[in-house]
């Protein structure tokens, strides 16, 4: 099973983490299943950018981004060439390292 290394994020994962998830799982699902409560305001339907991550290692192992995802990413805070919406980024067999950006464009967070 691939391992996802999550770099430290003050709110979601202060100490960083390493989690395992089966190939075919979205990065967002893997994080949520392992207690890393990344925002996902559209309930993983590819309609917002709150689950934006920057893939530091393993980017090319992910499925290719669809046009809908790329259009949304243009609005994401801190967009990088290796940015993906974690709800659309599907794990293959390679390990990943991801960074959750410090900010999102979602001003009204759930559960706060």
Automatic annotation (TrEMBL):
Keywords of this entry: 2Fe-2S, Electron transport, Iron, Iron-sulfur, Metal-binding, Transport
Protein biosynthesis recorded as keyword: no
Cofactors required: [2Fe-2S] cluster
Pfam families to which the protein is assigned, alphabetical: Fer2
CDD domains registered for this protein in UniProt: fer2
InterPro entries reported for this sequence: 2Fe-2S_ferredoxin-like_sf (IPR036010), 2Fe-2S_ferredoxin-type (IPR001041), Adrenodoxin-like (IPR001055), Adrenodoxin_Fe-S_BS (IPR018298), Beta-grasp_dom_sf (IPR012675), Fdx_isc (IPR011536)
Segments forming domain 2Fe-2S ferredoxin-type: 2-104
Superkingdom in the source lineage: Bacteria
Protein family (similarity comment): Belongs to the adrenodoxin/putidaredoxin family.
The protein's name in its UniProt record: 2Fe-2S ferredoxin
The species this protein was found in: Comamonas terrae
Gene this chain is encoded by: fdx
